Automatic annotation (TrEMBL):
Catalytic reaction(s) noted: epoxyqueuosine(34) in tRNA + AH2 = queuosine(34) in tRNA + A + H2O
Organism: Kaistella jeonii
EC number in record: 1.17.99.6
Lineage: Bacteria, Pseudomonadati, Bacteroidota, Flavobacteriia, Flavobacteriales
Name of the protein in its database record: Epoxyqueuosine reductase
Co-factor requirement: cob(II)alamin; [4Fe-4S] cluster
List of residues binding cob(II)alamin: 61, 133, 154, 157, 168, 215, 240-241
Gene, per the UniProt record: queG
Length: 309
């Protein structure tokens, strides 16, 4: 091992903490052999629904050295988004907690770029790329491999200390670093997430039929929502938190400290009748820098109409 590997790894983890990341783990870049079979089977079963992009870049998804030339290690990071106060759920349509505030892609990427700039000042120049839910990377697999948490029955990454309400991000770099190791699974015999899913999207331990998932139906799907979702969506108009809300480990979630993740006042006060009268102009004003812009106005309108039947 490079004599600087341990030193650099310590510096990186301290820097991650300074920049507000909840956890940081390091794993050696290479081919994710165990995940290859699982991904292939998942695609063969059409669990990706109409997310055809999941079929693309199969090799890159499994091997970051193909994505970032010369890369040696994957630095996995987690960033808390658990809110201090939850949005109302009575007489309104629900929004997943990760979408309460501004778009996390931009915020976390900016934080990582600042962090990398400081790292280069401290340890010298190195080649890297930063990602957060923005490239063909099996983020949970790398985070699991680096010891941040384990993959729960609901396929979310879970930690004992803080549950699962956090974003994952990666710095893929050519530094020689000290590798961390995977943690153990602590779901045990608990099946709360499987039992709570109203659409039976969790088909077995750690395997999700994406085409049955409420998040898929309200965000990823561009066509009409299938009739099979009727009376099963429990008023979720963007995303769904059910399988996380019932997870016992999320009793350890603590509120985030990121001002930009706080919801705007409109989201706190809107009732069902207000949402039904949403216009393109108002949508653009409210969600200009929000994850909800992904559905576009037509998508959110479709979701509201489906829930209002």
């Amino acid at each position: 091992m490079n004599s600087n590997a341990e030193k650099y790894s310590i510096i990186i983890k301290a820097k991650a903490k300074k920049f507000g990341f909840q956890d940081c783990g390091i794993s050696k870049a290479g081919f994710l052999e165990n995940d290859a079979v699982a991904l292939e089977n998942w695609l063969k079963n059409d669990y990706h629904g109409k997310m055809s992009y999941m079929e693309n870049h199969f090799d890159k998804r499994l091997d970051p050295t193909l994505l970032v030339e010369g890369s040696k290690y994957v630095i996995s990071l987690s960033y808390n988004y658990f809110p201090e106060e939850k949005l109302p759920t009575i007489n309104t349509f629900k929004i997943s907690k990760y979408a309460y505030g501004e778009d996390y892609h931009e915020i976390i990427k900016e934080i990582m770029q600042e962090m990398v700039a400081e790292l280069k000042d401290e340890i010298g120049d190195f080649q890297c790329r930063v990602f957060t839910d923005s490239a063909p990377i099996l983020e949970r697999s790398w985070a699991r491999k680096s010891g941040i948490g384990w993959v729960g029955k609901n396929a979310n990454l879970i930690t004992k200390q803080s549950g699962s309400f956090y974003f994952l991000a990666e710095i893929i770099c050519d530094l020689d670093l000290q590798e961390d190791h995977a943690t153990t699974d602590h779901c045990g015999t608990c099946t709360k997430c499987i039992e709570a899913c109203p659409t039976d999207a969790i088909v077995s331990d750690k395997i999700i039929d994406g085409s049955k998932c409420i998040s898929y139906a309200t965000i990823e799907l561009k066509d009409e929502i299938p009739a099979g979702f009727t009376d099963k969506m429990e008023d979720w108009m963007f995303g769904c938190d059910i399988c996380q809300d019932v997870c016992p480990w999320n009793r350890f979630s603590s509120p985030h400290q990121q001002e930009k993740f706080k919801p705007n006042s409109i989201l706190k006060n809107y009732k069902k009748e207000d949402w039904k009268e949403l216009t393109q102009e108002l949508f653009s004003e409210i969600f200009r820098i929000s994850p909800l812009k992904r559905t576009k106005f037509a998508g959110l309108e479709r979701n509201i109409e489906f829930l209002s039947k």
